[in-house]
Amino acid sequence: MTYHFIHIEDPETLSIKEGEDLTCGADEVVIDVAYAGINRADVLQRMGFYPPPPDASPVMGLEVSGSVRVAGKDSGFSVGERVCALVHGGGYATQSIAKAACTMRIPEGVDDLTAACLPEAFLTVWYNVIVRASLKAGETLLVHGGVSGIGNIAVQLAKAMNCRVIATAGTPEKCEILKNLGADICLNYSESTLTEQCQAQGVMGEVDVVLDMVGGDFEQFNLECLAVDGRIACIGLMRGGQSTIDLTQLLMKRATLTGSTLRRLTPSEKARCFEEVNAHMMPLVATGAMSPLFDRSFDLVQALEAQTYMASGSHAGKLLLKCG
User: What would the 3-class secondary structure string for the chain be?
Assistant: First the structure.
């Protein structure tokens, strides 16, 4: 038999190719992919700005859902089990290989579409907001891009921790979505400045943690809105990688500025985080306390159309490829 995958011909051309059925190592599984998540890292890879590591699949895609096709002898999984997983590339395909340590069973009552929205967002939010930025119950979290696939999960996790949540978006409609997700304060960056809006809401200087996926000219605001001992976790650069900041703010507030990329995490770090995610976040999905925001899905052959839609910034929630 063969499987199908998306191949990058050039930055503006994607094609579908065939390959032999995948096999895996003892600590891995092969997944018959139902859905693959679409992430900005995939767009950057297509454009040549985020090349995969030497040991990763050259095929785009970092997360999938589906059922186990082949279970490695030490994986702990069985053929046919429904799973979702973070993959080391290779998600834009009808079959994909995942480390067992980065694979989670899908709870009863949760469908494959919902499950495909989880692995990358769960890992990113948990590692950056909880591990690196040490958000604690009752603190205040500011989430930039609150209706993104990552942002909406951060909002919901923080509310589950009884935190106050401030979130940004670019339209009144997206701000309304954020309110429905539980955000306490919604800031529309297309209106007045974020500083003015925070001052009007009385929260300037009260933010304990910022989850920042925009960078650029937002960085100075991030510092100004922080409380003393506040932490900024930078995970994206949608507004650019250059920023001018007043380091006095960093000193006076004893602030911490940290950052990470998914592909820089070691296998042991990913495995540890997935144990924690499975224990603390997946039960929220299983009980309905957390439901990932979903925008739309595209067929596998529409991968370029899907990425173009993502790049437009008009979506609210997760975008998926239907692979099975």
Answer: CEEEEEEEEECCEEEEEEEECCCCCCCEEEEEEEEEECCHHHHHHHCCCCCCCCCCCCCCCCEEEEEEEEECCCCCCCCCCEEEEECCCCCCECEEEEEHHHEEECCCCCCHHHHHCCHHHHHHHHHHHHHHCCCCCCCEEEECCCCCHHHHHHHHHHHHCCCEEEEEECCHHHHHHHHHHCCCEEEECCCCCHHHHHHHHCCCCCEEEEEECCCHHHHHHHHHHEEEEEEEEECCCCCCCCCCCCHHHHHHCCCEEEECCHHHCCHHHHHHHHHHHHHHCHHHHHCCCCCCCEEEEEEHHHHHHHHHHHHHCCCCCEEEEECC
CA distances from 44 to 38, 47, 126 (A): 11, 5, 23
Measured between alpha carbons, how far is 154 from 49 in angstroms, rounded to an integer?
A: 26
Which amino acid appears at position 40 of this protein?
A: R
Question: Using one digit for the tens of pLDDT, what is the confidence trace for 253-267?
Answer: 999 999 998 888 999
- Whole-model pTM: value is 0.95
* Mean pLDDT of the residues in the chain: 96
Q: Which amino acid is at 159?
A: K
Q: What pLDDT band is residue 175 in, cutting at 50, 70 and 90? A: very high
